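REQUEST ID: PR-0412
SUBMITTED BY: lab tech R.K.
PRIORITY: routine
TASK: structure prediction, single protein chain
INPUT:
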Amino acid sequence: MRHLFRGSRWACVWLLLILAPAAGLAGTSAQSTGKARLAKITFDGLKSLPADALAAESGLKIGDLVGRDDLQAAADRLAQLGLFAGITYEFRSQGEELFLTFHAEEAPRVPAYFDNIPWFSDGELAAAIRKAVPFFDGTCPEGGAVVDRSADALRQLLGLHQLNVAVEHEYIGNPVGEGMIQEFHITGAELKVSKVEFGDTLATASRAIQIHVSENVLGKPYSRMMIDLFLSEQVRPVYAQKGYLRARIGPPEIRLSADPTKPLSSSVPVFVPISSGAIFRWRGVEWSGNTALTTDQLNAALGMKTGAVADGTAIQAGFDRTQEEYGRRGYLDAVVHPQPEFDDQAGTVSYRVPITEGVQYRYNDFVITGASLAAEKKIRAAWTVAQGEVFDKIKFEDLLAKLQARKEEIFGDLPVHYDEVGHWLRTDAQKRTVDVLLDFK
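STATUS: complete
OUTPUT:
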């Protein structure tokens, strides 16, 4: 017999335990209560979660007398953890004993990210969470009881250090990487960045970095996310431009010297360890999968010279241009996927770049909403690609730039009133056509 749970909905199939002697379940107690003694709990379908810990989370104990309500409640408790995309259970009876199996489909989990809790290392925060969630491995589901209990464990840790704050969590996109994160942050504490030091002279001597620190970091509310973004957007490019393509920057460290028995400090000094590594020079690039653009055309768009310092920002800009060249020719689904190969002994970097070009699209039509007839006429007049011609994404982006920042180039003296322009490209791969959709608000 099986009970189903999927996502946030479940189909209840009330399970009648047949406890008559004919079914092999003897005993006055079992027959009178409609329950059987739980002999074993097993899980299948688990990939990384520990079965023993989940059995404890179910609330059931070996030796308990259990009936349909107990099994239902156990399944609900497991579902509410947030760890499962789906969970079902089934059981079988043998004599006076009941054997229960949960069939589990684990939900995706993402890294836990501690934003503005500077007094403790990630390891210390993780250890606090494991007291409440023993199977915590540095990752969390999108939501559910596990995340709430993790936040409560952090709040209790801070309370032990005389800091009465709220701990909140949010499922958000990773600001400096791929995918999502479960971000934990506190509210109710005034934390300010008091100092930023770097473990390398290049960052210390960089005027651009120091200006940004002075204007946008010092004295501002402490946030690890803010620091990480600063390192990604301001510090790493300085190293990349000089060929330090494998520089190790961060993670930032908070070096507090206060007595841990006293109230936690609101002044946050930040130290950024940096190991610059070697300077790399450009060796070359090997393209594959390209037919719409020749190797010479791709190399010209990339713009790198053999033997020159491998300027990481220039390399990225070059690959962006190759992507734009495909967009200019109607290949809107083209994917350019650079894969670096470092030769540490020679101090060079080369790239293998497989390309998936996809189909070539031709322009079909505009769909414009929220604009007056006069404004729509102006927009169509400004669009220079005729129906049936190869779609030029660069011209599309230029049109958007005018609509958003240089309206007079399209509308002239015509009065128009809108705050934003929603825009989409609706492609039909089978027909190889694309429509432009504009929505004025």
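NOTES: The first strand starts at residue 2 and ends at 6.
REVIEWED BY: pending
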